[in-house]
């Protein structure tokens, strides 16, 4: 017996879920699940807290990369957490 499909979940509910998965998953996992998840992953609400401290792999911290991520938030970023060994130029 098949249950409900993730792609049928209301967008606002999915946004609520994606705000909790973390920055690394929002960058490297979620956008590649399906088209609807990619679209929802671009919602500015998902990008309020940008936490590079939780990355399993060393995140690229070039200025342009950070600008791209912050632009995803469309001005909604409330917190950016950088690793303790962060280059001065960042």
Structural commentary:
With 90 residues, the chain is mostly helical. The protein is 34% helix and 7% strand. It has one domain (11-81). A two-stranded parallel ribbon has the order 1-2. Strand 1 (49-51), helix 4 and strand 2 (79-81) form a beta-alpha-beta unit. Helix 1 crosses helix 3. The longest helix has 10 residues, at 63-72. The model has no long low-confidence stretch (mean pLDDT 78). Residues 6-48 form the F-box domain. This is F-box domain-containing protein.
Entry keywords:
90 residues, mainly alpha
Q: Strand pairing plus helix content: what structural class?
A: mainly alpha
**If helices are DSSP runs of H or I spanning 4 or more residues, what is the number of helices?**
4
Rg over alpha carbons: 14 Å
**What average pLDDT do the residues reach?**
78
Main pleated sheet: 2 strands, parallel
Strand line-up of the largest beta sheet = 1-2
- General shape: elongated
Which parts are unreliable, with pLDDT below 50 for 5 consecutive residues or more?
Answer: none
Strand segment tally: 2
Terminal residue distance: 51 Å
Question: How many domains, as an integer?
Answer: 1
Query: Hey, roughly how much beta strand do the residues contain?
Result: 5-15%
Percentage of residues assigned to helices: 25-40%
Order of helix and strand elements from N to C terminus: HHHEHE
Pfam family, one: F-box
InterPro entries: F-box-like_dom_sf (IPR036047), F-box_dom (IPR001810), LRR_dom_sf (IPR032675)
Domain F-box: 6-48
Organism: Lithocarpus litseifolius
